[in-house]
Amino acid sequence: MQKKPQTALWVSMATVLGLVGCGFLYGPLIGPNPNHCDNNPDVCTPSQQCNPQTGYCVDLALDMTTVPLDMPRADLSTRPAGWTLQNPLPQGNNLSGVWSADANNVWAVGDAGTIVKWNGTAWSAQSSGTTNNLFGVWGADANNVWAVGNGGTIVKWNGTAWSAQSSGTPSILFGVWGADANDVWAVGNGGTIVKWNGTAWSAQSSGTTNNLYGVWGADANNVWAVGPDGTIVKWNGTAWSAQSSGTTNSFSGVWGADANNVWAVGQGGMILKWNGTAWSAQSSGTTNFLLDVWGADANNVWVVGDVGAIVKWNGTAWSAQSSGTTNNLFGVWGADANNVWAVGITGTILLGP
User: Fold this and answer.
1) DSSP conformation letters of 43-80
2) With 90 as the cut, is the pLDDT of residue 79 above it?
3) I need a surface site. Which of 40, 86, 160, 202 has the fewest CB within 10 A?
4) What's the pTM?
5) What are the sequence ranges of the domains in the chain?
């Protein structure tokens, strides 16, 4: 999701028996799970790291710099219609976020510092320089890309290599978005928001202590961040302030075509739309937990979620699309309406539509 820690008060009952990517199973409604590493650190071996997103241990033995990714679809122009699986194996780490500069420059990030890149022909692993789980990725262009994750981790791609940046926070960072290379926001645990000004990251007051899971903006003066309990906060160029969502459900993702067409998605198939004045509910046609949203424009918007859920907005209504998988899908982004990637559990990468 983008990727939610087990501490969030979320229950997606559709995935109670099989959830491995969103960490909604336990908490005050059910009680802590003693077999999850965020409740019992001794569960993980010395060669593993706890992923708070899932509550499960991640094997750090995989050397992503030497893993070849077998991509069956080099020629995008001849691929069949619909969503198709691009990368079933051998990269098996969960992928939580995806972003594209164009159809030949796409990055996906995930557990244990995993970063893989599509060059228009094949996916290949890149060395992130960290073994921390990465949850979000965004770029201003193909030479300025940021990924964020556990422990306040921020790494930046400069067109040649990834390098660490100091975020100034130990909080988990779940989402990242920017208006340009000098105005970038990252959001995370406990209402954490940090902003990049082209030189350094500094903290901003969000006005909430709720976790923030997704962030998106129309420009540097219109930025939204979302989280649990119906949390929506908006940046107006000067300060963050709360907006009324009209729900106590949890949000996990936000995206818009412009400042008057913004969607927030989350628990129970919830989709809310901002029209420039207020948020209102739309019928998604699903009760699955919806985890991320992206669109090519205001009439072509995709939302992904648990159990392989994908729904599309055509400007009038939402309708289901067949993903061909029951794997949980955590992230979605595209180069255009014909090249959209969705990523998820165990390295799942889908290309559609």
Assistant:
1) GS-TTEEEETTTTEEEE----GGG-B---S---GGGPP
2) no
3) 160
4) 0.81
5) 63-352
